[in-house]
Amino acid sequence: MLxxxxxxxxxxxxxxxxxxxLTYYRPKSAIPFGGFARVIDFSLxxxxxxxxxxxxxLSQYRSYSLINHIGTGAAWDMIxxxxxxxxxxxxxxxxxxxxQLDWYRGTAxxxxxxxxxxxxxxxxxxxxxxxxxxxKMNYQSIIDYHHQKDADLTIAFLKVERDKSAGRFxxxxxxxxxxxxxxxxxxxxxxxxxPEADWASLTVLVFKPEVLYEALEKNQQCDSYEFGRxxxxxxxxxxxxxxxxxxxxxxxxxxxIEEYWQSSMDLLGDNPLIxxxxxxxxxxxxxxxxxxxxPALIRDGASIHNSLVYNGCVVEGTVRxxxxxxxxxxxxxxxxxxxxxxxxxxxxxxxxxxxxITDVNSTFGMGVHVGVVTGSTDDKITVVxxxxxxxxxxxxxxxxxxxxxxxxxxxPENKKVANGEVLK
Amino acid sequence: MRTQKEALVLLLAGGVGSRLNILVQSRAKPAxxxAGMYRIIDFSLxxxxxxxxxxxxxxxxxKPMSLMRHLGTGEAWDFTGRSRGVKILPPHTGFKDSDWYKGTAxxxxxxxxxxxxxxxxxxxxxxxxxxxHMNFHAMLEYHRFKKADVTIxxxxxxxxxxxxxxxxxxxxxxxxxxWEEKPKNPKTNLASMGIYVFDxxxxxxxxxxxxxxxDFGMHILPRAIDNDNVFAYPFYGYWRDVGTIQSYWExxxxxxxxxxxxxxxxxxxxxxxxxxxRSADRAPARYGNNAQVSASMISAGCIIRGTVVNSVLAPGxxxxxxxxxxxxxxxxxxxxxxNSQVDLTIFDKQxxxxxxxxxxxxxxxxxxxxxxxxxxxxxxxxxxxxxxxxSGVSIGRNCIVNSHSKEDAYPSNNVADGxxx
Lengths: 424, 421
What we know:
Chain A has 424 residues and is an alpha/beta fold. Chain A is 17% helix and 27% strand. With 421 residues, chain B is α/β, with parallel strands linked by helices. The model of chain B has no long low-confidence stretch (mean pLDDT 91). Chain A binds chain B through residues 34-36, 270, 276-277, 280-283, 285, 291-312, 319, 323-324, and chain B through 35-38, 256, 258, 263-265, 269-270, 273, 279-301, 304, 308, 312-315.
């Protein structure tokens, strides 16, 4: 087996406030997605299919779920003589190096703090990825382009609507050097208020190793340590060869609850935008023991339309436009629509769910109503944190947020949680 | 890691199971798929694992490739580690050039070196082709308490079925005092489940004693009952010998029946999902806008756009718009085309039914298959691995379509009841 010449570094450490209770106990990259997988599986599967099997994952926020999920790496074939996946948490340095006593102060700092790991592998190319996006990409294409241009840094970009969403990303001007394929990056703005370009960065970066080492070293003198905000502008200012590779395809973003929900809905339909089977999505079936759950039991009287249902589910009620993870039970008379139910939720008889995301392990008593009421104009998404026991007959309004693992006496006596209310 | 000697397990997985017809054309009976994602042998292997036993020899003989791929390293059943292991014991040349196993006892005798290398107090001898849930630890405790030489797992079956089994007559203490192998005129309804605990030394002595004793049920047990301490261990749970097409179909239907007693997951039955890319890496089952599914088991990777009633679907089955699948069992990656109907049929893997075809048509359920009247006589039809059912074709009851049959194999658009393609 040839030694892989590319080292991939996945930035998987962050939690974001917008995802709220879903990232209470896990980093964003470990959020369940697609009825059986996790968000980071998309990046890991892309690496697998690109033949890149030397991978490091940089993580510092509540890594336990992620560590469990990665396991030995065998699920993505990242195990073997020259293959491997390592999780790199922050470490306490020697007292002589006081600057290393810190947490990761940013994505660039995280890589800087692990330069010994990086250099040990003597990579020819360093691929830096975000672990938070839903997409299918063969990284070899961008690496080939990077070589072809003899670039110092090559960044993957996607065309987005300038006014609507470009301001939420790093955006760039790309010249016409290679037409549809890509070109030289002439300008770059990180999350600009008034975007002047419409090519958004996917946070897929290919570096020449020496260029990266030098940039990270230099960046340590600054007071911000991010690839997007600091490293890319710095390289451009230094006149380095920075190229843009134009990606065309689906790109799902999961930064907010609305985006997470929308990306999930993109899994549904006759010709789904996200086709996990065709994309060859791989996950670790040992995580949560999902390899051992039996095929779903669909009972007499059940009705399931336009939905994804994994093994281990038992459905007696009605499920529409929804995604059911392993171990979800939907009892008789219950109606679940436009919802995403994570592992092992038990939905009691005659419950009504509409536009709801429930984290793992909650039990809903009989006749619990959650989410949007049909015909109502308030159609915000309701989020329920994990390990809750929702008493019979409770009504939880649209856009409400239920914190994880609530004590039973937190449930209001009138059994009503108003629209948009946050129950802590 | 334990240091205490624990019982050694021998799993007899060599059976042809010929009454399962084309389902055992390319695999041994224990390797026949069951309940969507499992294989029959998973039940015995998981019972062994859940009883805390970790040393297993699997005796194979007939078409073992599928079985060997399925067992892999044994990791799925936690049989890997310093003192744990599962070992495949195929037939090998012995005193003569080719010593095929002449019977169950002969099979064990030919692997006596495996027994001698793994000394223990007891040997648990199992068959790999039953659907059941049992704790062998409790049976071993019972065996020790009775100070038995041999203990046999036994259960009450309908008297009409006893002729398929070894049967025993017991006294008040559960000591077996009389034995009949597959009796025509039974004196009892207590059947052997093919599950034995032997005292280790007693088993070795029995095997050395007389090389002409080649079968446990026919030779070794009757002599043991006459001369030594043989006890029945009563079992009251679910146990099925799925040796016929009808019993195999019924046991699968038992899994989907509401309020059913058989639940692989609750029983702790596990399988090797990674063997042959079975349910590993399959996306969740996808239900279309017009899907109608009831009383069924649906595995990951299925795509359901039509109707599925009272059926068991293995990973990757596609049921197209307007298609109806009823009372059937479909193995991995079968496709039922648009507006086709499938009724009371078992599909082996990767069967392709084109559009507007009918499989399992008519009311002559009792008109047996002409070539194999003892295999198919209750109305169930069988479609072999990778066979094609062309568009517009209609297949009757108790029919067999052999594996890999393509369009030119069909003499006409009508396959009459009892025909074989």
